[in-house]
Amino acid sequence: MKRLVPLAALLLSGCIFGGGHTPPTDQRRTGAPGPSARQTQMCHADLKRIGVAFNPLPNRDRGGGCSTIGTVQLLDIGVPVTNLGAMRCGLARTFSGWARNAVAPAARQILGSDLVKIETFGTYACRAVVGVASNRLSGHAIANAVDISAFVLADGRRISVLDDWSSPDPQIRAFMRVIHSSACKRFGTVLSPDYNSAHRNHFHLEDDGAHFCR
Predict the structure, then answer these.
(1) What DSSP string runs through 25-72?
(2) Prediction pTM value
(3) Would you say residue 6 has pLDDT above 90?
């Protein structure tokens, strides 16, 4: 069995939370223009450079402030991921980096097993924010968010946000906190079960520049 890295060292290396505690603003959820064609092209080049397979998707204004502008369909990021639909290229780039360079190493080093699958609740959905008294659009409505529900390991274990965020197993708790902390350094908005009950079963990851981590 591979030697496990001491938990204290891993927690210290991953415990820098991005941003403060200022709630996300509404500006990014009002149907504002998405990334420019040049920004999207540059993002495509970045994905190719790091070996991520994807298909570019056509721009669509879906009405009611919902849109899929500058989006891609991820095909292969190095580990299977379920339920991925249209997602803005910038989000796809950040998500691929987090999965490959944070989640996979943490699984190996903390839990002693390779990551073989990430499960999600999806990406694009034309809907409002859930769990708060507001009718403002979610980041999902512009394909700029992904909800992560679980991680499957080579040894057969399935680590879920719902069941394992507060696991009695200290190594599993450490894994969850490390990957959450890493997400907070990469994504603009990261919401966990600590945010509200609507997020008890997933991490909401959004590439919005909001610097909000809970």
Answers:
(1) PSGGGS------HHHHHHHHHHHHHTT-EEEE---EEEETTEEE-SEE
(2) 0.85
(3) no
